[in-house]
Amino acid sequence: MTYLDYQATTPLMPEALAAMMPWLETQHANPHSPHRAGRAARAAVEVARDRVAAPLPGGGRVAFTSGATEALNWAIRGTTGDIVTIATEHAAVLDTVAAERARGRQVTIVPVGADGLVELARVEAAVGATTGLVAAMLVNNEIGVIQPIAAIATIAHRAGALMLCDAVQGYGRVAIPDGCDLIAVSAHKVYGPKGIGALWLRDGVAPAPLLHGGDQEGGRSGTLSPALCAGFGVAAQAMIARRDDDLALVDRLFAAAVDRLPGWTINGSVAARYRGNLNVRLDGIDVNRLMSEVRDVAFSAGSACASGSGRSSHVLRAIGLTDAAARSSIRLGFGRYSDEAAFVATIDRIAAAAARQGIAA
Fold first, then answer.
1. Predicted local distance difference test score (pLDDT) of residue 261
2. How far is 167 from 169, CA to CA, in rounded Å?
3. Domain definitions of the chain by residue range
4. What is the pLDDT of residue 310?
């Protein structure tokens, strides 16, 4: 199996698994217990917290959550005032703001251009005196486009609103501006374990709790898993240590794929994007047939979160693609554990399978 679905999830790095194992096998204490074993578990959690915080801005704290979906829900539902967000956001944002609209909050969805980027003038026009929260994704999970988060945050702050950044796909890869007030991240998108994420909160920012109980995380209740925290911490630490090598690899793979898919069109901006995400289309291609012919290759026809919905990608429709064009698109995601030779051979297989449909350039 050749794995090209890094936006859905990344492989668990061996070092993260090794860090988790003691807490799964022998060190089972509750990190919120006052006895010695509990204090040791708590110490491991705090080491992990510092490591997760390292790629994030200063002047804030990290609260662990069950994942980025919970973090985004907490940030959105725990704030007040009107909400402004972008049409290409993840469902964890768009569905949550839709629920908030049903509860009476005013929500404005700002469109994007054909390149997937939002026009700052449109954000400026949407944000007003009653806006309480502006939410924008750093790196889009479907097309890899990098939004101008710093400029959007400036607009939000000018109106007295908070800035929420969904940094799941960019964390450790793309610099996160200091202007954010709330930042959601996830472990399993950075070679860590599934089931844990975090919400970074700027000092003084305290959204109302989403979960009630023991308040273990200062606004978030629930017993933490030292194993998941430790795995996340090691993965986050590695994102810093290996960043240059990781980015150099995805640059090479991106260039190789583009070179071998000359008849395909890249969806979204080519310049303003994280290059470990290549979303391309070939008009008229039967994507289901393509995936069947290379069934030993794991890649995506859209977001994993929307798989099975029957709908074409809302992101691709937001950049102006027709339903047919959106359904003629595939997403290739790659990263640290992608073998270059195998990757090139796989791209050639995808191109050959497309050619057998009589649609090759």
1. 97
2. 6
3. 2-9+242-353, 14-241
4. 63
Closest residue by Cα to residue 246 from 300, 296, 189, 196: 189
Q: What is the pTM of this model?
A: 0.96
Say if strands 277-281 and 107-110 run parallel, antiparallel, or are unpaired. unpaired
For the 2-9+242-353 domain, the top CATH level (class) is: alpha beta
Q: What is residue 139's predicted lDDT score, i.e. its pLDDT?
A: 98
Low-confidence ranges of the chain (pLDDT < 70): 302-310, 360-361
Distances (CA, A) of 22 to 43, 52, 203, 226: 14, 20, 33, 10
131 secondary structure, DSSP code: E
- Alpha-carbon distance 168 to 176, whole Å? 11
Q: What does the pLDDT look like over 336-350, one tens digit per residue?
A: 999 999 999 999 999
Give the start-end residues of each E strand in the chain. 2-3, 60-65, 82-86, 107-110, 131-137, 162-166, 182-186, 197-202, 265-266, 277-281, 297-298, 329-333
82, 58 Cβ separation under 8 angstroms: no
* Token output for 228: 């998941």
d(Cα 349, Cα 164) in Å, to the nearest integer?
41
305 labelled catalytic: yes
Give the pLDDT score at 359.
73
Catalytic entry in 165, 180, 229, 305:
305
Residue 166 backbone phi and psi in degrees, to 5: -85, 100
Tokens of 342: 């195998």
CATH 3.40.640.10 for domain 14-241, yes or no, is: yes
What's the pLDDT tens digit per position in 297-336? Answer: 999 986 444 555 567 899 999 999 999 999 999 999 999 9
**SS3 sequence of 233-284:** HHHHHHHHHCHHHHHHHHHHHHHHHHHHCCCCEECCCCCCECCCEEEEECCC
